[in-house]
# Entry
Amino acid sequence: MAKTLAEKVWDEHVVRSADGEPDLLYIDLHLIHEVTSPQAFDGLRMAGRTLRRPDLTLATEDHNVPTDLLQGPIKDPISKTQIETLRKNCAEFGVRLYPMGDASQGIVHVIGPQLGITQPGMTIVCGDSHTSTHGAFGALAFGIGTSEVEHVMATQTLSLPRPKTMAVTVEGDLPVGTTAKDLVLALIAQVGTGGGQGYVVEYRGDAITKLSMEGRMTVCNMSIEWGARAGMIAPDQTTYDYLRGRDHAPAGADWDAAVAAWDALRTDADATFDKEVVLDASTITPFVTWGTNPAQGVALSDVVPDPQALPAGNIRDAAERALVYMGLTAGTPMRDIAVDTVFLGSCTNGRMEDLRAAAAILEGRKVAEGVRMLVVPGSMLVKLQAEKEGLDKVFSDAGAEWRSAGCSMCLGMNPDTLTPGERSASTSNRNFEGRQGRGGRTHLVSPQVAAATAIVGRFAAPSDLQEL
Amino acid sequence: MEPFVTHTGTAVPLRRSDVDTDQIIPSDWLKRVERTGFGKGLFAEWREDPTFVLNRPERQGATVLLAGENFGTGSSREHAVWALTDFGFKAVISSRFADIFRGNSLKGGLLPVQLPAEVVTALMDLTDADPTAEITVDLDAREVRAGAITAPFDLDDFTRWRLMEGLDDIGLTLRHEESVASFEKSRPSWKPATAVS
Ligand code: SF4
# Structure
């Protein structure tokens, strides 16, 4: 029977299936961080259960870690306890942990690919919704709650109903100056926050296959923002080139065996999806959100929409509430909106290409007076590489703060937060109320738009800079 | 887990769509390593407004949450479910749930009930008109009943059985330990593993 990529990966991992019951799916890799694991470890202990496969489990510290090393060790006692709890748990159950200060530490979704442990055809889970990032390699990767974390710890499996499949085909070429982030923000604005609910999505088409691995990760990362269970991209030469030679990538004869298996991981020509969406990349321009969910976005060249022009009901009500929260007036050109803070980082846009793109724009320029810019690499390796390339100096010279690796202002669990009413241009993935700090107003953008915005002090694209 | 067969209680109408888990329980609360005590953090920021529906005297003691479309979007934090149950909710009714939130609820003793948007609105209107109106969520019959409203809902047989029996998911899976072990033998040797320290 013809199958989609998602169905192939699913079927290869079914341990047991029975009529009227969910499938029992084997999990190849379980990623863990400090926030969603303590209660699961406790559950294991209380039930007297063991961790079935410590060798398929990997932990890091990311959500709570301070990224301003000048501030010294963690000051917040509750954050500190959470980090210490993770360390104790990993020691007790024999889990490999990359702690703060380790050269491989970083945001869980940045380090997996970087270590080469995220590979095509795998099932990967983590108590974190942006686990969808790993789907960029053709893995079936998705976020789970703490009960499921405990379930995977105890059994290395999950009991799940077979998901529906969807194809998102992005044809054509992205215009110059437009990025993977703009592509996915435009997609979400089109399909809505719930558009992917219940589906595993496969992104395909020219505009997708032309993306680098890092761009693909940005797209898959945001799958959850339109409700998709997971996002995947079929592995190809770009994937193999990225993986080859990485720490955990297969080597020698194993590499050849793996590639032979990965080559089969493509949706069959006559396979059908439960749903299909088509997008034309050539019409996409730099994008920015104006509201409090990721679907509330417009082109940078556009204006804050008028809720009265939106369909009555939920969408209009949500827009009205969002404008009040965001302190915006309908009809205001996005380019007229001034920002206080620019955040470059997160598992969406905290990798090398993101930093390089932003640095290229900031080089020889200054962050606008009164604007604070934070640059937070997604991992320590990204940090070290950026420093090797002198990017840290570009950022510092421009007046931005160069930080250490972590989630940082993406969710403000560490000291990096917005104050009430403060407005940010952020390369992260969520513009929910209070996401970056109580009362904070978040606008999601690409690294390029973030850099240009930092320089102008208002939302801007790199192309605006020449006109200055 | 405690079995869930049927539940009757008063309701809170939350007329907002896309309520994300950052609103249900803000990230500050996620630093805790316990599983209990999250009720205080439920909708923490909205509750600072004394007119917020959850703060109203007539809503005290309510156990059924009536929510707008797309409830529980965003982060995978199960803390959102723990906050709702710790606060006293037994069921949430919405026209659509985010996948991960729905899954977490089904593991965490909170029944997510999906009903057509018109029915959810009718239930909200009912409780708005009479805050003492009780809503029955009957898992056995897969039916919600309140006033003149009777609405069937979908839930697969297996999950329904598991919830009605109050069975532990992990325990159920461990019964298939042999299948897991034999599957493990068939995994290609080149699949990655983390070197355990
Ligand atoms: S960077 Fe943000 S979205 Fe990514 S894992 Fe960290 S908190 Fe979650």
Remarks:
- The longest helix of chain A spans residues 77-93.
- The two ends of chain A are 59 Å apart (CA to CA).
- Chain A has a mean pLDDT of 96.
- The pocket of iron/sulfur cluster is lined by residues A 62-63, 107, 109, 128, 130, 346-347, 407, 410-411, 428-429 (CB under 6 Å).
